[in-house]
Amino acid sequence: MIVNEEALFAYFDLSHGAFPFTREECDRVMSRRQQCGKLFIDELLHQVYEASGDELYPPTSVDGFRNLLRAVDSSSMSRAQKASIPLYFFCHWYPHAAAFATADGATEDEKQLRKFARAHNIAPHYANIVRAYFLLDKEQYESAVHLLADPRIIPDWSSKILATLAAAGIDETGHLILRYIRCAKPTISEPEDIYIYLGALARDNFMDAWLYQRSFVNQDARRECVRQILDTCLIRQCSTSRFIFRC
Question: Hey, how many other C-beta atoms are within 10 angstroms of the C-beta on 185?
Fold first, then answer.
């Protein structure tokens, strides 16, 4: 075990009424999964799912939650991964701390979250990535991008982050896509990522989008970019919808 099992469980209030995985919350998670495919927590738990042959998240009972934590600890994941996944679960108990971090950690929820991270030797920047994944799965995009818009943070799934934001609608999240790309500076090389970025640019500033498409040497790529810009600006319906934005 990374830590004593009971010491780990002690961080989570498993009493009746405090357990956050209510039927409503489990239904929300399942609905979200059906809507956009794998969640970020599913990506984090990939090795656990493979070993167990089943999706253990969301747990529908306290015993199910205990089994999930045990499955994480007995998996072949790295020590850092094993420590970070419980932090994701911890955010279910303290969602306000996950979404509204303060500079000095003054709120009680924030203190609890930081205490948990310190106890498990989770670096602050890595804790912010996990919190951002939790917020993206909860569709709290503004707060998630606030955490991710940091060049020191290099998440594992930048393409998935972009696809998740785009799936919510370029009109609603275009400014967040631009903020994430401009601040975090993820590598934009896959076609899907390029068209998401171009769609957000075209919504914001036509000339920026036009200059961006001119940066491509390949003529076929430029023609597709121009088509994307025209679709976005003239038809007012971003043609990135024809790409599969699975979260």
Answer: 12
Backbone angles phi, psi at 201, to 5 degrees: -65, -45
With vertex at residue 12, the alpha carbon angle to CA 6 and CA 17, rounded to the nearest 5 degrees, is 125
Beta strands in 120-238 (DSSP E): none
Cα distances (Å, whole numbers) of residue 222 to 213, 226, 230? 6, 6, 12
Q: Which two tokens stand for residue 209?
A: 């989008």
| pLDDT tens readout for residues 4-41 | 677 888 889 999 889 999 999 999 999 999 988 899 99
Residue 107 · residue 136 · CB < 8 Å: no
Residue type, 122: I
Ramachandran sector of residue 139 (left: φ over 0; alpha: ψ -120 to 50; beta: rest): left
126: tokens are 């890595």
Higher pLDDT, 155 or 182: 182
- Tens digits of per-residue pLDDT, 162-177? 999 999 988 889 999 9
- Please state whether the peptide bond connecting residue 58 to the residue before it is cis, i.e. omega within 30 degrees of 0: yes
Phi-psi region of 34 (alpha: psi -120 to 50; beta: other; left: phi over 0): alpha
The answer to whether 144 and 177 have CB atoms below 8 angstroms apart is no
* Cβ-proximal residues to 60 (8 Å cutoff; 6+ apart), any chain: 21, 23, 26
Tokens of 99: 């979404």
Q: How many CB atoms lie within 10 A of CB 1?
A: 12
